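=== RUN LOG ===
request id: a7f3
mode: sequence -> structure
chains: 1
length: 115
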Amino acid sequence: QVQLVESGGGLVQAGGSLRLSCAASGRTFSRYTMGWFRQAPGKEREFVARISWSGGSTYYEDSVKGRFSISRDNAKNTVYLQMNSLKPEDTAVYYCNAVGIGVYWGQGTQVTVSS
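=== RESULT ===
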C-alpha cells in the first residue's frame, strides 16, 4: 500500500508560481512511476506530468511544457511539481498518482489562478 498526501496548493495571480509536493508512505516509493493529474470544475481528470522511478525520464502534457517541471527525491519519498507562469486555465484540483504494483491516488490540492 502507498498513501499519498499532496500539499502546496493555493491562490496565485496569473504569471505567478507554486510548488506542489506529494509525500508518499511506504518503503517502495522508488519503484513507482509518479505523476500529477488535474481536474477542473465540470471537466474530466487529465494528465499533467509523470516521472520515472529513477527521475531520469519525464513527460508532460503539451499545455504545461516549458512552464511546469516534475521532480522527485526518493530519499524523502516525495515528488514535486514546480509550476511557473501560471494561467487561469491551470485552475484545478491537482492529484498525485503512483503507478507500480498498484495504482494509488492522493486526495488532491486546490490550485486557483486569478486573472
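=== NOTES ===
The first strand starts at residue 4 and ends at 7.
The chain is about 0% helix and 50% strand.
=== END ===
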